[in-house]
Every structure is written in C-alpha cells, then in structure tokens.
Amino acid sequence: MRAVVLGYYGFGNVGDEAVLWAMRQHLQEVLPGLRLCVLSADPEATAALHGTESVSRTDLKRVRRAMRESTVILSGGGSLFQDATSWRSPLYYGWLHELAARERRPLVVYAQGVGPLRRSLSRWVTRRAMQHAARLTVRDALSARLLAGLGVRAPVEVVCDPVLGLPFPEPIDRSPWVGVSLRPWPGMSLDPVLETTGRIREQIGVPVRVVCFHETRDREVNEAVAHRVRAEELVVVRTPQEAWRAFCGAGLVVAMRLHALLFAALAGAVPVGIAYDPKVQALADYLPGVEVVSLEDLRRGALQAAVERAWAARESKVRQLRRAISSLSDRARAPARTVAALVGGVPS
What we know:
globular, alpha/beta, six-stranded parallel β-sheet
C-alpha cells in the first residue's frame, strides 16, 4: 500500500518537515505497511531525512506516475491553500488535486490550515480543489469556517496540528532562558521585540537564545536580533528532531512561526506568539496558556505586558499547556485513522 503526500516539503522549513515527521509516525501506528512517496523540492534530501520515497514536485511525468501507482493521496499538512506568502500556492495545490481526481485516486486533506485567501481566484480554486477530497480534516476551527464560507458542503473534521501528537521531550534541569524566534514580515519593526527582550533580560537576569527555524529565509533577521540583544547563542535547527529539542530548558519563547510556538509548548516553555498570520491567532483558541499579540498591538507596545504576564504565571501556564496537549494528542492522530478507515477498512 502506498500514499503520495503533497505539501511544502524539501524547502528547508523545519516546521513543514516536522509535520511530515509526525504524520509518518501516526500513519505507521495504524497502517504499518504503508509506504510514503513525498512530492518535494529536494527529493534526495527528503528521502534521506524521512526514509521515504520522494519525487520532484515539478516533474509532471513522475508526479502523475506516482499518483497512478498509489492507493491514496494525502494533501497536507501545513498551510497549502493560502495566498499570503504566494498567490501561486493555491493554484499549484489545486492543480495537484485535479491530477488526483483525473487519476481516480481517493484524496484526504490532512490537517491543513486554510487561508488567508485574499484573491477571488484563490477562493474559487480552493473551493473546487476541496470538492475532489474524499475526506476533509483541518487544523483549526478558523479553517473550517473559511471552507464553509467558500461553499464547501462536504463534512469537515476539525483536528489539530500533527506535531501535537509527538511526545514531550525530556526536560533539561538548568536555569531557564528566554527564546526568540522570528521570521521576516513586510512592515514589521523589530524594535518592540528588541526592547522587550532587553527589559526582561535586565529585570530577571536570564540568558537569551535566538532560534532560527527556516535557515534560508529567517537567518538574516535572527542574526540581527541575536547581535542587537547580545544573545548567548544563535541556534539554527535543520531537522524535526533538532526542532523537537530546541526549546528544552526555556522558560518562555517569543516566536512568530507556528511550529516554533508548538515546539516551545511541547518543551515546557510558555509560548508568546506574534500573530503575523491568522493561524497564530487560531492557536490560542485551541491551546490555552499561549499568549498572542497581534501586529497592531505589537506596535502599541503590548508585547512587553504579554511577556511579563507569561513569565509571572509560567508555572501555572505550563501545567495548563501540558493538560491541553495531552488531550489534543488523540486529535492529532485522527487524520491517520481517517486514512486507515478509507483505505484499510480500519475503524476510525
């Protein structure tokens, strides 16, 4: 039995690679004989990192053959149908959904986050693409509401990010530190983050570590932050396993990327998110204990208050996060059970 996996794989974004890492583990639990073939920007690197088959995502002939030889197509996870970072993204994944339909293979939308969709063409493509799915699972309620608003009538199951089904990493017994992990974003000033980091360091005297989650895109901004706050260390994570352990020992993490926040929570730190995208705001809706500051509130100086609030209440927030993650672990595995029920006759 073989599944083709569509997603943003092979680009060096550790968050997306972590989603695939978790998906593979959950699928192996319910379908031990399932082989994965991942469409990737770097098939050799993907095969080496995940131990899967992999083909180039732009090689139409090989993509079609992989789909034809598969039992099921898995679309996701991650944010594939959105046009905030590129208007091409929904068009590309919509085209892959069309190919899956032409090859008459069942397609499962696997814990995707949907949106934002600012263009009418993106919304039309997304609605059409979702109509090809045999099963639809999304990462948060915000995505489900967006699909309903687009006119998608098929049942949509709200699950959560597959990463929340990973085990807690072993704690590290040492003095806590503060983590910072940013990405570049148009119009966002670094000054509020620098001022807040400098103040908390001065007030409570903890080390600062800057963690980079996407080396090719985020390194420059994180190097600048590390230099300006005189951070003890700049850590560049390149694999899901490194990301899983990256925040062990941290007491609090200020981050933008969704998976930096999720790994901070798994490691026992209090995440403080900067909501450059609706998916970061949505995290606070299903993971209590997370502090989130919008870009507008960041400009008004709200980050400092959020960090001070999180640090003061961090022990109770960590307990709250642990309870929430433990209860979400089963939901993180739900899409894998859906796949098993569809292709293997295993009850979901």
